[in-house]
Amino acid sequence: MVDVYDLTNLLRQLNFKVVSLLDLTESEMRNAVDEFLLLLHKGVYGLLYYAGHGYENYGNSFMVPVDAPNPYHSANCLCVQSILKLMQEKETGLNVFLLDMCRKRNIHDESTPNIVLRVTANIVFGYATCQDAEAFELSSTGFTNGVFVKFLKKRLLDDEKITVVLDRVAEDMGQFDATKGKQALEIRSSLSERRALTDPILPGDSADLVHAHSHQWAKAHELPESMCLNFDCGAQIKLGFAAEFSNVLVIYTHIIKMPEDMSFCQAHVTDFSLDLDVDPKEMNRETPEETGIYLLSSSLPQHCLYTRLSSLQKLRVKSLSVP
Fold this sequence. Notes:
alpha+beta, Rossmann fold, Immunoglobulin-like, 2 domains, 6 helices, 11 strands, globular
């Protein structure tokens, strides 16, 4: 979670339109890929970062969704090379895959997908670990980065060819005593030109398409505007919103005005769609941390009640009320 959050902020500094999603099922992952592909067109730089459980069989990398059965097979997972093939059909200018997952072989899966890729000189794979090896995190409970992102985030904004950036990350990781001899970054590339994540955006003849895709991205990421609600009793309440990830929303309520004859007042958000599976014990808490909000806690206003809504991709009916 911390890795995705940090990379999201860095990529946005580079003017990428970022979609950050947590804890997806297979169908949700496939839908996310479909939406991602809709944002691509000729010349666009496409980057996919995946942190989670995965495996590699016969040169193909598989991302394992949260609802995969045990044991799981390729039919239950998403093949990274299949996504690359679809990206190539969009005539992208650069395809970067940063796979922060294990690459152990799945002994329960003997399938060999026949994926025929185009020969293009614009593909870069950055594997967090070598083939048939594991990828490590620095802490299983604390809010720290995994080993790969710990070093990647220090280099990502460098104005260098993307393979040069990854080479330097590999060198940095190689000096890290905690995982020396256990985890080493592996880079695979067919990149023949100097392509950097810092390259300026050049709309060219696709200005209308760029605008349309930007609008499409914005529709899914524009937050509701903060609002003031006036109640018959004389209380005035501010309702605010913040995004932790593309599918995680934070709602906070603050008492702006309270009648003189009222000794106590709180504003609770209630009646959410059952699709969200919200735990009432983690709603309307006095500190962000009590609801699971750690990454945004320092930037939220104080003296509010906070509610964290995750898995927004499951939402079917919009339902929100303030008593």
